[in-house]
Amino acid sequence: MDLKDRLTELKAKALSEIDTVEDLKKINEIRVNLLGKKGPITEVLRGMKDLSKEERPVVGSLANKVRDELTEAITQRREKLEIIKTARKLEKEKIDVTLPGVPVKAGQPHIIMQVIDQLEKLFLGMGYQVVDGPEVEEDHYNFEMMNLPKDHPARDMQDTFYITEQILMRTQTSPVQARTMEKHDFTKGPLKMISPGKVYRRDTDDATHSHQFHQVEGLVIDKHITMADLKGTLQIIARTVFGDEREIRLRPSYFPFTEPSVEVDVSCFKCEGKGCAVCKHTGWIEVLGAGMVHPNVLTMAGVDSEIYGGFAFGLGPDRFAMLKYGVDDIREFYLNDVRFLSQFAQKG
């Protein structure tokens, strides 16, 4: 059998084998066996040295043509096998979209944020605005505008983290009130605001203290504001957070930015005022501080203290949450333990 006949027979046999192969691994083996250095086409080309000058180009051309046709056939078969393989895989792994989905458990706001949200809704309903401000604050707004000049002894109670001599992490959200008073046009109406947010103090972390905690401070400035307005507002806060039966009492205290100043107690919601471990057997629980805005604070903000007055209060949502839900360690709020936090499902 001459070389041309061998090439023709090789082509027919190879095409038949390629057309019937069903495995990608097998098609690769066929490619190596047919077109590799030790394959039959290479053998034919090596035998061309025994041919005449006239036959060599004819056989060489035929060999190249057969090799190209087999290469094309192998490529097409491989592509077809890959499509078949993918289709089988998709058929095997397809998802039945008519099946019910896996339920995803919905999360909830952090318990402290729930308390803050509750307070914000209350005050928005009373016509207040919610104002935010920077946590990295100037000493001027954090202390001096709050009637706490340099070397004032009350600063020791609010020792904080200083970034520079005049820039610090705010110890209270009161600076937001000072900034807002500077901008407010009192000829267009009173200022009624709350300023919730994170504050920082150099406290030793223990069951009731944290170097970072939250505050919600409130401020009302207008003509003819009295202590009665403050007491009524505090009563609403206590009953909204702790229950409709709660009563409050005011005790004289001292804050540099209010005069007169009061500590606010709420009747114990555990024992209904009879005395228990929660209220230390007094029937009352201290919850916040408040007072009438000091004239110096108004004057420094550019407000005429002869015409305008007001009240301010400050409360801790962390402490409110501890009291309301009987949590005895403030650090629990910041450990991100879902087992703890999921106990406080948001209502409404």
UniProtKB/TrEMBL annotation:
PROSITE patterns: AA_TRNA_LIGASE_II
Subcellular location: Cytoplasm
Catalytic reaction(s) noted: tRNA(Phe) + L-phenylalanine + ATP = L-phenylalanyl-tRNA(Phe) + AMP + diphosphate + H(+)
SUPFAM superfamilies referenced in this protein's UniProt entry, alphabetically: Class II aaRS and biotin synthetases (SSF55681), tRNA-binding arm (SSF46589)
Major site of localization recorded for this protein: cytoplasm
Keyword set, alphabetical order: Aminoacyl-tRNA synthetase, ATP-binding, Cytoplasm, Ligase, Magnesium, Metal-binding, Nucleotide-binding, Protein biosynthesis
InterPro entries associated with the record: aa-tRNA-synth_II, aa-tRNA-synth_II/BPL/LPL, Phe-tRNA-synth_IIc_asu, Phe-tRNA_ligase_II_N, Phe_tRNA_ligase_alpha1_bac, Phenylalanyl-tRNA_Synthase, tRNA-bd_arm
Key word Aminoacyl-tRNA synthetase present: yes
Positions that bind Mg(2+): E259
E.C. numbers: 6.1.1.20
Cofactor binding, per record: Binds 2 magnesium ions per tetramer.
Gene Ontology CC entries for this record: cytoplasm
Domain of life: Bacteria
Domain Aminoacyl-transfer RNA synthetases class-II family profile: 119-323
GO MF terms held by the record: ATP binding; catalytic activity, acting on a protein; magnesium ion binding; phenylalanine-tRNA ligase activity; transferase activity; tRNA binding
Example of a GO biological process term: phenylalanyl-tRNA aminoacylation
Enzyme category, top tier: ligase
Cofactor list: Mg(2+)
UniProt record similarity statement: Belongs to the class-II aminoacyl-tRNA synthetase family. Phe-tRNA synthetase alpha subunit type 1 subfamily.
Subunit structure: Tetramer of two alpha and two beta subunits.
Protein name: Phenylalanine--tRNA ligase alpha subunit
